[in-house]
Amino acid sequence: DEFQRYKRKKVISLDLQRLLDSEKPEQLFSEDQESVINRAIARPGGKVRYIQVQKIRYVWDVPGKAFVRVGSLEDSNTCYQIHQKFRDGLTRRQRDLRKLVCGPNAIEIEIRPIWKLLFKEILNPFYVFQAFTLTLWLAQGYIEYSIAIIILSIISIGLTVYDLRQQSVKLHNLVEEHNKVQVKVWTKPEGGHQSESCHLVPGDVLLLEGQKLSLPCDAILLDGSCVVNEGMLTGESVPVTKTPLPQADNVQPWKKHSLEDHRRHVLFCGTEVIQTRPSGKGPARAVVLQTGFNTAKGDLVRSILYPKPMNFRLYKEAFLFIVGLVIIGLIGLVYAAAVFGSRGRPVSDTVAMALLLLTVAVPPAIPAALTTGIVYAQRRLKKKKIFCISPQRINICGQINMVCFDKVRPLNFHFLPLHSFSSGPLPWGPLCQAMATCHSLLFLEGRIQGDPMDLKMFEGTGWEMQETCSEEKETGETEAFTIVKPGATASQAPSEGMSILHQFPFSSSLLRMSVVTKELGKDTHGLYMKGAPETVASFCHPKTVPSSFQEELKSFTAQGFRVIALAHKVLSLDAEDSLRDLDRDEVESGLTLLGLLVMENRLKGETRPVLEELRDARIRTVMVTGDNLETAVTVGRNSGMIPLGDRVILVEAADPEGPQPASVTWQVMEDMQSCKEKNQDPCISIDGSSTSFHFAMNGKTFQVLQKYFSPLLPKILVNGTVFARMSPGQKSNWWEFLLLLLLKSCGLVLPPLQALKMAHAGISLSEQEASVASPFTSQTPNIQCVPELIREGRASLVSSFAVFKYLTIYGLTQFIGTALLYWQLQIFGNYQYLIQDVCITLVVCLTMSLTEAYPKLAPYRPPGRLLSPSLLLSVFLNVCFTLVVQIFAFLFVRQQPWYSPIRSHRGCPLGNEPFLLGNGTGNATEPEDTVLSYEDTSLWPLVTIYCIIVAFVFSKGKPFRKPIYTNYIFSTFLCIQLGLSLFLFFADIEAIYKGLMLLCTPTIWRIYILIMLLVKFGVSYFVEDAILQNHRLWLWIKALLRFRSSSKYRKLQRQLQRDPSWPPLNQRDFAEDRKGEAYTNPVFENSEGD
Prior knowledge:
The protein has six domains: 1-70, no CATH class; 114-177; 182-305, Distorted Sandwich (Calcium-transporting ATPase, cytoplasmic transduction domain A); 313-400 and 788-892 and 931-1018, Calcium-transporting ATPase, transmembrane domain (Up-down Bundle), CATH 1.20.1110; 434-471 and 478-602, Calcium-transporting ATPase, cytoplasmic domain N, CATH 3.40.1110; 607-624 and 645-671 and 691-762 and 1066-1089, no CATH class. The protein is built from 37 helices and 35 strands. It has 1090 residues and is an alpha+beta fold. Residues 1058-1090 are annotated as: Disordered.
């Protein structure tokens, strides 16, 4: 059960004696003594104990005396151990033992029975409270109202159960098809054979023989290579090449050996294998890493089944708010018991009426009020091609105060070559060969696919790519290669083409990639490298690197161009040399620099307006990218992320060298763009005339700061705008640090998978309708979705608060009226309640949130707290207004000359007959009516029409929603409700008086009631619009009271503004020691207590 918290779990025991027979566990695990399964088998006895929590199995580690997760290979295995232990597969007995302990390789989601869903929904506290309320209403004889509520509840429960059932069926169908995939497994000593995927266990060897396959498990590639589509996990449907795990003989665990690139060797469950390439040893092989719910897909499904609770105060405060209403209801219960008890009423009537007043104070629809705005906002987002798998995060988007863009791609068009590229075909030579071969492009489904930059570079050569072909070796083994040949538009070449024999894939930590090639028809081999210019240059002979290299590089990056370097080396390979055994560090040395490839980053048309809108809304924007620092800064300036005239301070940190400790330097970067526009020399503004500044740094600097200058890092992040050359791991660390130390609500666009899940509102730009990588997916490949999502989040949040306030005031208004009538042992009539609850309140709740978001973002956020001063004051003042007016009407009607405490006649005088004193008065022996009275007739319109008034007052439009008249359905219903209420109040129709149990009153008294309502409307509207929703007034009050935000982010901001030595300029600071104690600014530290 996803709502259950586990303090105790049933321990299940497995008896392995029959399976083991006479064989000892040590024999089965002779090559894998440190296996979790081996450590879990109790000796003697051969038993394994386990528990299961949220679909994950944990076995009892006998030596370690703790429950440990089972269902995956141990991370402690080295690359060499994985190859040695598992390359030949498992025996049948080993497989049976692992399957019994780990469980089947299946992600099984049962379709919930309708009866179970129905039973669970009925036991919801909301419906339990409603059932309690209906029991009281039926006991009092309010049949019609109770039947209406029962019908509405049945419809609501039915729709909810149907929706939950459909979700259960959809999720079941999503995972069921992967539980019975036919795979080819290699076992000892049988060899390869077909098997259902549900029988796979960690350690099995899969044979991948070219057919398309949806992976049923996580697996480590051992031999060959694969091309997979990881769109289900990442949200980007770009083919990804997987390379085999190296057979490095070292003591490091395989993940640490591969650092952040270990994912390059892992085939994830749920991803689609598009293409496989065999190695010289046969078909591609992979060892099963994880099975069932331990896999990447299983982890995703578990996150859907057991979502982590979001730490958003709205829902916590909603509970506290309801508790407050319950307390008011309990006070009313005591009041009702005292009144009815003191008048000598039967105990049963006293208890029933007391409980009835309790239910009036707490409208059972309040919890649902927080979801109405979300439902409509999700529907509007879907029309704008923004899809959401976590609707509760829509309200959180209304509180976003920072947006982080990962990669430059969402801000720019795809890369375009410089004009010199298009002046003619690129001549034959090493540069042309490098551009034609050094890439990760693939020929799939009749077209070339891959990274847009690689694709544009390859198109610039005019060459063509052909299907992968195989070459027979003397040993009889086959191996696949990619062939590239000159096309019709390419320059003449003295070669038929080139084959790409081996690829060292691009690594975010190494910032380079390289390929080993061979000319067709020749025995000459070559290595071509492509990557970050400063990285590639470090692998080249110094003689081949021009002295003006750095200057030229800086001139290109300062203009915002994407620059990569190309290098070449002739390789001497013998026929017997194995390409897999090549040492990358050895072959990637002594290269010749070929030149720089410069790509133009053209800004998308919508980028600058979107960033300007976010800046005008005081929403901070940050760029975290893997690109060159100068390129990222220039893109930031051109896009408006860094406004014209603002200073950019480059922060560079260095690790300790010898006796010199770690250091950090601060240098103002030249604004090449602004000086270029003015035809001036590069200029630097350091006189302090520009009060705004931005820090820029690379991933290495961030890592050093985190290690040696940790006290400085929060201060830098307050104004950090550009973070370049950041690896995926550094991005995740950056995000975690920022989230924990500085900010409350942030949005994130296209970050790494881990950061997307950490963010409050991650957005993935994907053509798919939903990406599991993030809560939101936009099919529009630009950043226009960011302000759209924030606008809808704000509108949803404001709508939720408005409906919440409305229901609260409606309940308390009805509570006050009922309590006043209790004073004379009366209550509102059945149909009177029916009109208030169903015809007005229910319709308002369903239509108020239909108002769309305002098209322009306001420079401030809506209140994010139900217990905020403005909301509490709104509820308190409106309740006070209605309390005063209702008490005045209740007392004033008794002073009228025509008033009588007992009435039996419901009609009005006919024609011109005067309204006589005592008209229709019953005799003294007539039993008192529980509804008929002038007090009831006076209070009912005050309560009913006031519900319409507050619905209008709380439907404020600008700055977060469109005006109320744009919500045609709500406006129409509001007018109908007001007209109908006035008609019922002023129409002298006998049937209406009888049906509603009202008494006829003089016209002048009805006019008095109308004047009271107009006064209530005027006061409520003025207080709500001119005072409570007046942002400038609240800012003035905050300034008068010297109120300051208590968040750490705002504290740091204020302290740094008071620090005259911040930011440091053109200086170098050193860490005090190697232990991470960093230099600190004494002026800043002394201001901590301010």
